[in-house]
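Support reply, case 0932

Customer input (verbatim):
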Amino acid sequence: MPQCLGNFSSMLSVLHLGMNNLQGTIPSTFTKDNSLKYLNLNGNEFEGKIPSSINNCAMLEVLDLGNNKIEDTFPYFLETLPKLQILVLKSNKLQGFVKGPTAYNSFSKLRILDISDNNFSGPLPTGYFNSLEAMMASDQNMIYMRATNYTGYVYSIKMTWKGVEIEFMKIRSTIRVLDLSNNNFTGEIPKVIGKLKALQQLNLSHNSLIGHIQSSLEKLTNLESLDLSSNLLTGRIPTQLGDLTFLAILNLSHNQLEGPIPSGEQFNTFDASSFEGNLGLCGSQVLKQCYGDEAPSLPPSSFDEGDDSTLFGEGFGWKAVTVGYGCGFVFGVATGYVVFRTKKPLWFLRMVEDKWNLQSKKTKKNAGRYGARRN
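Our regenerated output:
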């Protein structure tokens, strides 16, 4: 069957062979001037590399090679497919850097990019974030993506949506997804990611990203799901994320974030699971009180204002201690003033001198006894 794929592609516009346990390599016999628009090989056991002859499929809109055993680097040659809207390469053995565009107008029509669960490394592909034009503008036409020919075939795809793997039997033209999770990406989250204003789902979890959470994420006003969990992110959670009114899923767990969890707006809808594994965070969601400049205000006291014993155990309260200390200080100063004012401090000096001499004699006597015992 794999050997026939190239021949089929020249005759068909839709080729769905997913979930068939097909083995071998994907053939490199995709011919030019074919009419293939939808190619789904998801859930098979294909090995080897992604054939560059797929670049001959100039009409291709959907390419799903997910859940196979493909061992290759990132297929840059797919950039030049002028109509490609969905690219799924998840759960393979792809590796290496994803350096960014090698051609003009790369992936400009891409609505869904899923390269999760691979071994990609290096910094996030900032260059692609600048060229994903379809993710920068929302599509107001609520239609389902389909092959526009006599078949009227409606595209389907299997995808992780808000943390759950779902097979979409129909794909709305409005959907925008960027999933780079479960790889080995390093470095910081680039500010330019804020340009992808139409994104509905952004997943950068389970990488080795460092630095702060960019406040530019507030520009992703259509975002419904944001997953940055299991990275090495530091600093505070931007309060601007609370302005994302559509945000239903937020996962910032297992990072190195610190400071207070913002309150109000969307943050009141997220539970402890969104923030767990960040020992430096404080707030009601993690049952850890904020102190000092970490919080705008302290919670009301749980004890009566007049009950001082709660501060000093069951002994004297702080008011009693303060009054006693003050009285003692005033009495001591007054006594000293009277003594030295009358110029008769001799009795005080004699008392101290006698006490000193007595202590000295005891010390010498003890020393003598100790020496005699040793002898």
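We compared this against your earlier run and they match. Two observations from our side: Residues 320-369 form one domain. Residues 62 and 158 are 12 Å apart (CA to CA). Please reopen the case if you see a mismatch on your end.
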